[in-house]
Each structure stands twice: as C-alpha cells, then as structure tokens.
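Model it.
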Amino acid sequence: MTARTLPHVRPASLAGRHFSTVVVGAGINGVGVFRDLSLQGVDCLIVDKGDFAAGASSAPSRMIHGGLRYLESGAFSLVAEATRERNLLLRNAAHLVRPLETVVPLSSRFGGLLGSVLRFAGFTASPGARGLFVVALGLRLYDRLGRRQRVMPGHRIGRAPAADEALFRDSVRWTATYFDAWISHPEWLILELLADAHADQPASVAANYCSVTGCRGKALSLRDEITGDTVEVTADVVVNATGAWLDRSAGALEGAGSRVMGTKGSHLILEHPALHAALGGRMAYFEAGDGRVCIVYPFMDRVLVGSTDIPVDDPDLAATDPAEIDYLLGVLGEVFPRLRFTRGDVVYTYVGVRPLAHSDADKPGQISRDHAVVVDPPNSLRDVPLVCLVGGKWTTFRSLAELAANQALALLGRSRLRSTESLPIGGGADMPADAAARDRLIDGIRARSGLTRARVAELVGRYGSRAGTLAQDFAAAGDAPLRHAPDYTAAEIRSLCLDTGVRRLDDLAIRRTLLAIRGRVNGAVLSELADLAAAALGWTAERRREEWLACSAILRERHFVDLSAGAAAKAPGLDAASPTDSISSPITT
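Modeled.
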C-alpha cells in the first residue's frame, strides 16, 4: 500500500467534518458497504470501537462456502446466493481465496432421510447421521444452485478409498467429495477493501479505535478509544453494520433494538502432523455424535477444527471455554479413532459471535443464516436515516453490502455508477489464474527485486499482485528476517505498522500477520514485534511495555497461547514471574 495514499485517520482530524455517509462497524459487512459506496463516488467515514476486522470478521472458520447444510431448511435462495458469491471471490480475490476439496464420510445408505424430510417441511426433527442418499441428493442440488460463475469441479461419490478407510472410523463405507473454498487471511482482505475504497474516493477515510457515543440531529459524537478525545462529525445517512453488536449500537444511534442475537463459534488450531498429512489438503465435513456439523482441514502447516454454536448475551465477553476445547477434541477422536488428540496439540483458539436475526428456534443450528437490510427513519432525536444490516455471512458480504449501498444511495438521491460483482479486491487485481502464469509473476518479481524465489513466492501468497512493489521496497530496506519469526522481515513489519492503521500491538501480532493463528508467537516473538512497532510508531518505552503486557494478556486469556518461552526476559521492567506466572499450562487442568 506504500505507493498510494492511505485511508487511515485518527478522530482528532475529523472534528467538524461532514460525510455523506458514516458507516459504524469495520467488519467485513461494514467495510463492504464502505467500499461499494466509495466506488459510487460517495464520501464515507467508517469507524469501529476496536481494530478493523477485530470482531467476528477475524474469527470465521475461514471457509468461503455456500452453506450445504442450509438446504435441509429450504434456504435455496441463500445457498444460490452464497455459492455464487463464493465463485466470485475465487475470481476477485484469488490471492487469498482458494478452492478447498471437501470429503464427507458416510456410513449408511438411508440415514437421516426422514429427519431431513421433516426439517425441509418445517418440522423440528433430530438430524441423525446423514447417509448416502441424503448427501447425494443434497450435493446434486448444491452443484446446481452453484452453477453460476462456477470455477470448480462438481461432486462425486464412491466407495471409500483404502487411505480414507484407515483414516475414518470403521463404519465409514463411502465418501462424498465436493469443492468449496477457504480464505487464508480474512483480515487482510478487509484491509484491502479499505484501501480500494480510498483509492476510488479519496474523501473516504477510516478510523479504528473510534466509538460512536451519541447521535443528535445530523451530528455523531465520536470518542478516540486510545486518547479519550471526543469530536463531532455530521452525516446525511448512517449505516449500522456492527453485527452481533447491532442492538447495543442502536442505543447510541437512537435506533430500534431487539433485531439480532449472537451465537459463538469456537475454533481450535492444532499442531498435528499426522492428521495434517492424512487429510491430504482436503477438508473433512462430518457430524458429531450429537448431530453438530463440524469441520477439520489443513490450514497452512496447522490443522483448523471448528466449531461450536452456543448462544451468548454479550459478544464482548465471548471466549472459548475449556469445555469447548474438550468437546472439539473429543469429536476428532470419534471421527479419527486411530489418531490421538490432546490439549497439548492445541496451539491457538479463537471465537467469533455470529450475528443472527432474532429467532424462537429451539437450537442455534436451526436459526436462519440469511440477511436483511432495515431502515430506521429519522426520529425526534436523530435527523438522519439509519440503515441497519441484520445477519450476514462472510461469504455473502458483497451482496449484502450491495443491498445496503443501494438503500443508502436511494436515501442520498444518488444512482449506482458501477457494480462490485466483477471487481478485483486488492492484490487480486491482475492475479494470474494458473500455476504457470503465477510462476512467471514470481520470477519477474525475483529478477526485479533481487529477493530469493522462496521469499517472493511467500509475498505473492500474502499480497497477490501487489507483492512486486512491496518486494522492491523491502529489498531496498534490507529485508532482514526476524530473529524469532523468520517468515517475516523487519521491513515487512515496519510496512504493516505504517501502512495498515496499526495502533496496538495485538493489531500486528493477531490481525496483520498470521503469526498468532499459526501458533508462532511466544514471548521472544512478541518482544521482537513490540520493538519494531515501537520504533515505527514512536512509542515510548513505557507505551511499549504496556502494549506488550496488554497483548500478552489477550493471547493468554482469549487464545490460550503459552508465552512462557523467553517471555519474562524480554519484557523490560517486569519481575521474572510477572508475565508468565499464570500461563505455564494455559489449556490444561
């Protein structure tokens, strides 16, 4: 992003400014609206009380999928929309979104047939293990609904290969195979959308750690969550895209409440070479003994397991419980009985809160995953209309954003100029579609930058077609690998700090890089990152120390990361036991 102006601002610079639209919530749906409206020439401000993509948008299963299981509830239009959006993302963000071969182990011919029929008819029914007939019918329909913009093969079903018979439980006789997709770094795609929006409309800007505390007339009161400073801006339209926080945000925005409910989904990242190898690059999509649909797939050099589905009242307090870790490990033991799983395999956990429309359903899995756009008209306190995004899935962010943007444009009396449907995102622009062309891209960047081919391939995998400019910038700065995390370099970390709106150390460790989710952060790595961030952002020694402590607490308490390796020796001004006395075994009892 160094070659372009940056969208990131602090609240102090916004005082007294007017924007045609203010978007509240910088997750994937809010940023999607921001990007779409900016493309139409609308000047927008987007704010978030935390970091960009710090909520549920940073904690999905990292699948880009159509929602196979939604077919049983008759949600055909949602599945058709989601499979189409999946196909578009494979084209528009090919540097981050890639095909994912998926295998479904099957143990019976007709299992789950009656339950599926009853659920399709609208009755509540226990699912039971779905058999060959139900899955074959579902996949045939799934392929048909996903035929628009298709870029992947159709499904196939057959006798379980010998390798799969050895992998799954003894009862598995057949396997079904189909394709969905996965995203390597969802937070980065959100940052790219912000940058693209600003490139389209330079008057559109973004502020993280900036909360909305009130709305009177056309004025919104904003508070800088880092400094405590407050300012006011005015707007013609306000968009509430705060996801599971929608009802809570409605209070500050003088809007209606009681529209959403949240369910948390916890995920585990395992270091398990045997399972990683046995999966062979595929995702296994299976049912637990209690009927919950779970997934497991190779995530880079780790294994991702998900997820739970538990109602929560306060999304700010959502965290992975030890019981959820045990549940997911137990499910793995059921499905892969010849492999052993323990808490020691877990290197990272994360949890996101799904924003679902209010429902009286008996079980979370029965709640619709569809979305809607609702407008609260001006009232006695608020003079501007409030466009509210209710629900929404990661995969369908573009189509939901389009609906919301169309509503905002109508309220502004403006027309749509362009569609985002075929618009590349960030480094997806001019990204080669085949391996040979990608090799040529890598070789060209290597020749121009002088970096090694392996390093260039790594950068292309992270930043797509924009890796060329970054590689030359990093090479000019020496591109020295980090001592404790050589997958990244000092020049790259500095660029992330300066060019992506980093304000806190956890922004860098958890969202701008993939170090945390890959289980690569210990005390020494965190200290190295803190030193580089402090130098780039001008932090004092005290601020650096505070950031180290705050980030280590987040990693320990919310992600079950053990920072004990080298931690105490690397945190200036701390007693040896201070940062590590409660983290020697964070996910064991």
